[in-house]
Amino acid sequence: MQKTKNTKLHDGMIKSRSTKIGDWIIVGICCVLIFICLVPLLNVLARSLSSTEYLIRNEVLLWPKGFNLDAYTTVLGDQKYTHSLVFTAGLTVVCTVISMAMTVMCAYPLIYDNLRGRNFFNGFVLFTMYFSAGTIPHYLLLKNLGMLNTVWVLIIPSCLSVYNMIIMRSFFYGVPDSLREAAEIDGAGPIRTLVQIYLPLSTSVMATLALFYAVGRWNGFSDALLYVKDTDLYPIQLLLYNILQNTNSIEIGTQEGFFDPGVGETMKMATVMFATVPILIVYPWLQRYFVTGVTIGAVKG
């Protein structure tokens, strides 16, 4: 008996040691992946804080040389950049709120089995996910609606993602029916049930989808490139796109204040940082919501 206990103890120690080795291997892989992801960002940051002479000689890698904040001072002092940054932040907030409202309003009715034409509406929504009329019909439609060169062209056409709606609908399906039935017995209607039952239980998925919408709008520029001509409506990513495309042109470079290749490079890197950092700050704030299974234990017995 004692020998059996010692054998089991020895086997347990070996398994524990193997588990620790496996954990360290996973940690090492994660560290390597983190480093690979951080290297480009560190390079951009270092180049934005370096002097032009070192950039011209291509001597900057991960640490700034000739440290200065001239590029950031120029960006912050230029009304074009600050206006675009503030406009993009406001646009992102508005688009995220509208998109989440549209997603909830589309997903919630489709979970009711007694909804007439539910299969038709499901198929109709899914059809738009796989098939599109194309860019030219889309452009003509927006033109006929009078939405070109307005802020609405950046909000309405992309206010609903079918993929995100399916995620939301699937999450609503996971909410126990007994909760909804209990609310209905207490006299709650569909809207009250949504507000008091489904939405409080959907905090994690709503935060995740809101982040998807926010990142998509913050990084989006193709719709503004196609449908907007007014520079006051340029999101920060489109402004950055124009800088990256035109900074090598002497004429455009003079217009934008890029007097030499080094200055143009630092300006590009500083603008990239301004366009990247705000959305990165949002991720840790929403990280605590990325937990599934919030309905576990909601129903007892």
Percentage of β-strand residues: under 5%
Q: Helix amount, in percent?
A: over 70%
Q: What is the CATH C-level name of the largest domain?
A: Mainly Alpha
Under the CATH scheme, the architecture of the largest domain is Orthogonal Bundle
Q: How much is the radius of gyration in Å?
A: 26 Å
Indicate the low-confidence ranges by residue numbers: 250-260, 292-301
Within CATH, the superfamily of the largest domain carries the name MetI-like
Largest sheet: none
Q: How many structurally independent domains?
A: 2
Question: How many separate helices?
Answer: 14
**First-to-last CA distance:** 42 Å
According to CATH, the fold-level topology of the largest domain is MetI-like fold
The averaged pLDDT comes out at: 79
SSE string, helix = H, strand = E?
A: HHHHHHHHHHHHHH
Structural class: mainly alpha
Count all strands and give the number. Answer: 0
Choose one word for the global shape.
globular
Please explain how this structure is put together.
- The chain has helices at 2-48, 52-56, 70-77, 79-107, 118-130, 135-144, 162-174, 177-185, 190-201, 203-219, 222-227, 236-246, 250-256, 261-287.
- With 301 residues, the chain is mostly helical.
- It has 2 domains: 2-48; 70-287, MetI-like (MetI-like fold), CATH 1.10.3720.10.
- Helix 4 (79-107) packs antiparallel against helix 10 (203-219) and helix 10 (203-219) runs antiparallel to helix 14 (261-287).
- The longest helix has 47 residues, at 2-48.
- The radius of gyration is 26 Å and the shape is globular.
